[in-house]
């Protein structure tokens, strides 16, 4: 069974731009969660989608948004990028959300 | 108080020894517990999950859960240099429907 895939793997953007990251979960998984990981803050929860509905959201500004499609693929968008948005963005999929999550390889975003 | 707490380490053990990693959590109702391993520059990899009190063994790894004391631990027997990584503890509180991660414990296994 194929694992979680994320595209792109690396991204360099300048302040003020926006970015869209994509995540394809493991086949059959309906829950997709997004996390931001930085050396200082560790893994921070962004949001979780299940069957196209956002079920939970972390403490991030409204510049961070996401969506999930009918095939369970998910995208997250960050608008008006700031230097502090430089991080590894990880998505994780699970079948129901409360069970074990499997992470994708991540997208390394650098904002200059 | 954070929902999930881990000692950041580093924890250094000699090759062949038992590495013991601990995690404490706040009581937020029903939970499930997970251990992830993360190598530098890579994404977290699921090692173990445990839902009930007691021990769960998988190869060289044993997860131990004590809900009364609110801690979960991971034992790595016969530690190898390839086990050197950061180990993340995660708790899913069913009422909140999201995972809370600890900050991770860095493990160094010395040859």
Descriptive account of the structure:
The complex is a heterodimer of chains A (112) and B (111). Chain A is mainly β. Chain A has no helices and eleven strands. Chain A has strands at 5-7, 10-13, 19-24, 31-38, 42-50, 53-57, 64-68, 74-78, 87-94, 102-103, 107-111. In chain A, strands 2, 4, 5, 6, 9, 10 and 11 form a seven-stranded mixed β-sheet that branches. A four-stranded antiparallel β-sheet of chain A has the order 1-3-8-7, with no helix packed on it. Chain A is globular, with a radius of gyration of 13 Å. The mean pLDDT of chain A is 95. Chain B is built from no helices and eleven strands. In chain B, 0% of the residues lie in helices and 58% in strands. In chain B, a hairpin with a 4-residue loop joins strand 9 and strand 10 (98-101). In chain B, the strands form two sheets. In chain B, strands 2, 4, 5, 9, 10 and 11 form a six-stranded mixed β-sheet that branches. Chain B is mainly β. The A-B interface holds A 33, 35, 42-43, 45, 48, 55-56, 58, 88, 90, 92, 97-106 and B 32, 34, 36, 42-46, 49, 88, 90, 92, 94, 96-104.
């Amino acid at each position: 069974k194929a694992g979680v895939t994320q595209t792109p793997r690396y991204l360099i953007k300048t302040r003020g731009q926006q970015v869209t990251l994509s995540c394809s979960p493991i086949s059959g998984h309906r829950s997709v969660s997004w996390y931001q990981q930085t050396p200082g803050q560790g893994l921070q929860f962004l949001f979780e989608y299940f069957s196209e509905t956002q079920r939970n959201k972390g403490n991030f500004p409204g510049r961070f948004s996401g969506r999930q499609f009918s095939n369970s693929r998910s995208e997250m968008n960050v608008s008006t990028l700031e230097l502090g948005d430089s991080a590894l963005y990880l998505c994780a999929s699970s079948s129901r959300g409360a069970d074990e999550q499997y992470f994708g390889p991540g997208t390394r975003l650098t904002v200059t | 108080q954070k929902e999930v707490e881990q000692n950041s380490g580093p924890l250094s053990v000699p090759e062949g020894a038992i590495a013991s990693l601990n995690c404490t959590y706040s009581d937020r109702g029903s939970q499930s517990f997970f251990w992830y391993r993360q190598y530098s520059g890579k994404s977290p990899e699921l090692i173990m999950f445990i839902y009930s009190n007691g021990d769960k063994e998988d190869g060289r790894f044993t997860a131990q859960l004590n809900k009364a004391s609110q801690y979960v631990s991971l034992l790595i027997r016969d530690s190898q240099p390839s086990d050197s990584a950061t180990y993340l503890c995660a708790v899913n509180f069913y009422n909140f429907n999201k995972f809370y991660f600890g900050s991770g414990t860095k493990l160094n296994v010395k040859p």
